[in-house]
Amino acid sequence: MLRVLGPLQAEIDGRPADLGPFRQRAVVARLVAAGGHVVSTDRFIDDLWRGQPPPKALAALQVYVSNLRRTLEPDRRPRTPATVLVSAAPGYLLRLADDQVDAWLFPRLIDSAATALAAGDGGRALGLLDRAFALWQGQAYAEFADDEWAEPEAARLEELRLVAVEYRAEALLALGRNAEVDLEQHVRAHPLRENAVRLLALALYRAGRQADALATIRTARETLAEELGVDPGPALRALEAGILAHAGFLHGEEPPVSGPVTPEPVAPDPAAFTPVIPEPRPGNRSPEPVTELIGRTAELAVLDAVADAEGLRTVWVGGEAGAGKSTLTGVFALGLTARGWLTATGQCPETDGGAPPAWAWSEVLRGLAAVRPPDDEVAVRLAPLLTDDAPCGL
Q1: pLDDT higher for 279 or 320?
Q2: What sign does the CA torsion over 384, 389, 390, 393 have?
């Protein structure tokens, strides 16, 4: 096992191994930072001697590698190829499994914890995160903090550690262990991390400390304005609105239906509360029904908070192609349907030349009209949008 999350250490069959003097140790750390990829001899020489190598730097590097091979593979027979510190043109690489290097194992544990959180398994996520934190024994690449090659990798691992701190808080909240969420110091050290502020404020609110939760958000708002000149993001704003409204979803409950109440028909049709999916037309890709969503908890919370607000509400969902916009809005629509809302969907056809005028609204109106038919006078006025063969002109 090689460790760089703190002082550089090596264990061979459970026993500590001596990696030698500083530059020889740096060879191991540099290979770990490469993540299993080849480091060229030229790069080694430049990094180890900080751009000022001695005349026999290559020979010194070869000696370091030879010594390390004997240390890392004490039972390797003479004149047999090395299997850990391996020669690979134009230099060397480490051939180890991820679980044999702490800096390689740590990101995998964080990824697995994120997957568990998205699946709602807070217990598994917490176990993975505790295992990940146990790997840390100090600053990453601590001995080599002043070396340019170590700085970006150390920064990457530190950022992952901060993310892991927030994931752990999220896991505790998912398990209802709100009192164990301890993010005050984390937020003080990193006041611009909005997700950390959100989690801390949520934990405070669930612990009955509404005033402290709002004060935490207010402080973050002031810091963001002063440091960056921006307002808090939608997730933090939605949490603030939810706290002020004592929204049930902050405790994991279904948020209550709010807004104007539409009288139910005397004999309600079960189909009246089914999401409307337009029939596929040429050039229009029919959306797939969506029943669950992995992740996007914060985004759904924002949408729920807006839906619970009074009056007419509009939300813009943007993102790159394939980012999951349709999936997110589809799950949100299903949630509204389960709460008694009438939902409809409109899409523009993916054809050359663009969509016909008002096509998306036509999709929406046709879906609504199929569930709640308009009266004759309104139907005549909406005819150009409700049928393909009606004369144009509203």
Answers
A1: 320
A2: positive
